């Protein structure tokens, strides 16, 4: 017997996050390019970000045929949020006269790199990066390194820089509820054994 699912947040109806998802405005346009393997992931944080931001769009795929049109948004300068040696810190753009179209690949690091490889136009975009040393609230996985954030956390951090003093912390409310729910489902003892200090 399958559990009924919320059509909006894709969570089981009994664990729907919609009441916690805000409706936030931003000057920055966020384009999330999600690898198909992430769509049914229990912690689909890119979807939470797209639902919570009025100026965001989530597209699922590996190759994006309409990328030239999507990147050429009048009034926006497109930047890829992805590490690189020549990536500029987001502080360079804040506050900017021209808002950014922030392109965010969503998937494991390997899958995100594959999206870039399959879409040369994307790989050619100027890259921006977050400040170093951010600590993830994603307590259910071992981060591959310092500063490794979930997609929604990276977007919140980017918007906090680009649109200061506006706060985007409300975007993290459904994410934190999701984490708490996962911990509750596995039980405190299991959580401590697998993820505790």
From TrEMBL:
Q: Which enzyme type, at the first EC level?
A: transferase
Under Pfam families, the record lists: DTW
Q: Which keywords does this chain's UniProt record carry?
A: S-adenosyl-L-methionine, Transferase, tRNA processing
What's a single GO MF annotation on this record? tRNA-uridine aminocarboxypropyltransferase activity
* Family statement drawn from the similarity comment of this UniProt entry: Belongs to the TDD superfamily. DTWD2 family.
Question: Taking every annotated instance into account, which residue ranges of this chain make up the domain DTW?
Answer: 2-187
Mind telling me what this protein is named?
A: tRNA-uridine aminocarboxypropyltransferase
**GO process terms (BP):** tRNA processing
PANTHER family to which the protein is assigned, alphabetical: TRNA-URIDINE AMINOCARBOXYPROPYLTRANSFERASE 2
- What Enzyme Commission number(s) appear in the record? 2.5.1.25
Organism per entry:
Pseudomonas frederiksbergensis
